[in-house]
Design brief:
Blueprint (H helix, E strand, L loop, with lengths): L2 E5 L3 H5 L2 H7 L1 H6 L4 E5 L6 E6 L6 H10 L3 E6 H7 L7 E4 L13 H10 L1 H9 L4 E4 L1 H9 L14 E4 L7 E9 L16 E8 L3 E4 L4 H10 L3 E6 L21 E5 L5 E4 L27 H12 L3
Parallel strand pairs: 3-4, 3-5, 5-6, 6-13
Antiparallel strand pairs: 1-2, 7-10, 8-9, 8-11, 11-12, 12-13
Helix pairs in contact: 6-8
């Protein structure tokens, strides 16, 4: 059995990113040991399906992260998943990052409509059962295009949101700071303290979160009221980016980087937690002599795995 430390810090420490520093420095980690608790890995009988199609390119990193937490993660091509019809045999689902079908038409559009048309009923049952679904970058775009996010009840709207071209009109690849804004609804951040600042990388050309223009204010107010906003782009000290580039790298409304559905078991986010899972993935670990054990992305996957134990 492998154990790993998870800090239970106060809000002020959370905003200062103490977890990142503790993982980067043995001295800090040892001095903070009285404030750390340990979480055991779950058994391998937990199964997660990772969907891939042509253009998917983050499935292996996602699989490795989940397997490090003791989960049996299987990468399945969508064609095979549709043929076998066994989605409900899994406790969780991940739609990973990449450029599905070359992002033709627009990012995530083809795969999103394909899932809605051919897997929609089964996936709706999966979600209604409370099983967790995670969409990372292109996966977030897919969930938006398929209509599973943001999931606001509105019979008049076909698609309530979109992830469109970055305001910089170019591909953005950088490390960003994320403010955890969710007050408890989202299952994927259950172990992350409210207003904790995380550092996770992005890599996208179409990540600007926008809402249906005619109902923009109404929808934004409802997302806030429903506690569906999970992550916002922010400054390193946790102050909201307020649209300022490059802290908000794409021009998303309200600095939104990730949202969940009204039930909290479907999360879509543009940053890549699988690229900030291990400490050696951090861009500046060499400043500390040796890589720390883990990065902030692990907190999201750990919360994900905690959800799986219920099924």
């Amino acid at each position: 059995m492998v154990l790993w430390p998870m800090e239970a810090s106060a809000d002020k420490e959370a905003r200062n990113g103490i977890t990142q520093e503790a993982w980067r420095s043995d001295e800090l980690a040892s001095s903070s040991m009285n404030r750390l608790r340990f979480v055991a890995k779950p058994p391998m009988d937990l199964k997660v399906c990772i969907i891939r199609v042509g253009g998917t390119n983050c499935d292996r990193e996602t699989k490795r992260a989940l397997e490090d937490l003791g989960v049996k993660a299987e990468v399945l091509h969508l064609t095979r998943l549709l043929r076998e019809g066994n989605l409900l045999e899994y406790q969780g689902l991940v739609i990973p990052g990449g450029f599905s079908y070359g992002d033709y038409i627009r990012a995530g559009a083809i795969l999103g409509k394909q899932i809605a048309a051919k897997l929609g009923r089964e996936l709706s049952t999966f979600i209604d059962d409370g099983r967790p679904v995670l969409g990372i970058c292109n996966g977030f775009q897919v969930l938006i295009e398929a209509g599973f996010l943001p999931g606001l009840r509105d019979s008049e709207a076909i698609q309530q949101a979109a992830l469109t071209t970055n305001s910089s009109a170019r591909y953005e690849c950088r490390w960003v700071h994320l403010l955890h804004e969710n007050r408890g609804k989202c299952l994927f951040t259950s172990i992350i303290p409210y207003r904790r600042v995380l550092r996770i990388p992005i890599g996208h050309a179409e990540g600007r979160f926008v809402l249906l223009r005619e109902k923009e204010k109404e929808y934004l107010d409802r997302l806030i009221e429903n506690d569906q906003i999970v992550f916002r782009y922010c400054m390193p000290d946790g102050v909201a980016a307020m649209g300022k580039y490059p802290f908000n790298p794409n021009g998303s409304i309200y600095d939104i980087a990730g949202v969940c559905n009204p039930s909290g078991n479907v999360l879509g986010l543009m940053p890549h937690p699988e690229r900030a899972y291990f400490g050696w993935q951090l861009p500046d670990w060499t400043r500390f002599g040796k890589p720390p054990a883990y990065g902030d992305g692990r907190l999201i996957f750990e919360s994900f795995v905690n959800c799986l134990r219920r099924f």
